[in-house]
Amino acid sequence: MESDSDRYEQDRNFRSGFVGIIGAPNAGKSTLLNSILGEKVAITTPKPHTTRSQIRGILTGRNFQIVFVDTPGIHHAKKLLNQTLVKAAERAVEDVDLLLYIVDVTSRRRKEDAAVLELIKRLKKPVILVLNKIDKVARENLLPLMDEMSQMYPFVAVVPISAKYRDGVDILLDEILKHLDEGPKYYDSSTITDQSIETVIEELIREKIFLLAEQEVPYSTSVKVEDIQEYPDKIITRVVIYVERPSQKGIIIGRHGKFIKKVGTMARIELERLLNKKVHLDLWVKVLKDWSKNEKFLRRLGFFDK
Ligand SMILES: Nc1nc2c(ncn2[C@@H]2O[C@H](COP(=O)(O)OP(=O)(O)OP(=O)(O)O)[C@@H](O)[C@H]2O)c(=O)[nH]1
Ligand SMILES: [Mg+2]
Description:
- By secondary structure, the protein is an alpha/beta fold.
- It has 2 domains: 179 residues, P-loop containing nucleotide triphosphate hydrolases (Rossmann fold, 3-Layer(aba) Sandwich), CATH 3.40.50; 104 residues, GMP Synthetase, Chain A, domain 3 (2-Layer Sandwich), CATH 3.30.300.20.
- 37% of the residues lie in helices and 23% in strands.
- The protein contains 10 helices and 10 strands.
- A hairpin with a 3-residue loop joins strand 2 and strand 3.
- The protein is globular, with a radius of gyration of 21 Å.
- Guanosine-5'-triphosphate binds next to helix 2.
């Protein structure tokens, strides 16, 4: 039995904090978040600019809670959509307690590194340098990189990991916990993400489009749940896939509707597993001319909400 004073002690020792995950596009930020949580809360694809908004993933232990904030990749953006993503990333980490700077050791991106370092220097927060994708390089090749990058900023720690194979992730977690102070439990123990069911549906559909479509099509696509009805055993939802030009509408629908059917089937199977319910997706494709270049449309599609 717990006495009142035990409970008081437990609360006093509870540590928590917000941890921002930043880095160049495609570095493996979202893969790391999923790997830490042991659940897929953020979509991941081989294409850059997959993540478009901040995503919170919450890890709760007996005496700690870490609220991870996944962000869009930071780079020198020219397009309005990409500039919006970078701003979202910067805003997302303004209030965090600690930063994880994820670097892909197989593909150094010096320009993007410079942009991330600029942000880090401005934020003046403790930063752990996380060298990711070490499954793809020989260990001895990491040392020169570790040396080089350690010169760039006084990182509080440097941790090599493979987010994909969960190698080094526990060491990283121990390192993170060292830098968290006493604090409240921000979310109840069973919550692992802050995303609404609508967002989860939109993101999974967008992931399938990123995986299946080529060239500019994924970047011209935005997905919106227009209507959702939730029943104890099923979900019925009407979802619109916005593209920028009529030709892209043709690509997303595909010959005899083949492309959109494939997107729908892949997303549905995954959603049904995730939500443990039947899911009926009623997919539509609409042209919203040049939405990614138009601030008004970006606003209406929710890009400035987070
Ligand atoms: N081999 C290997 N691949 C990885 C690892 N971590 C991530 N990847 C792959 O790298 C690609 C990009 O991963 P994401 O997690 O989507 O990267 P991200 O940094 O979130 O990218 P954006 O959201 O676009 O900025 C995917 O194909 C992942 O499977 C790793 O440790 N090893
Ligand atoms: Mg991502």
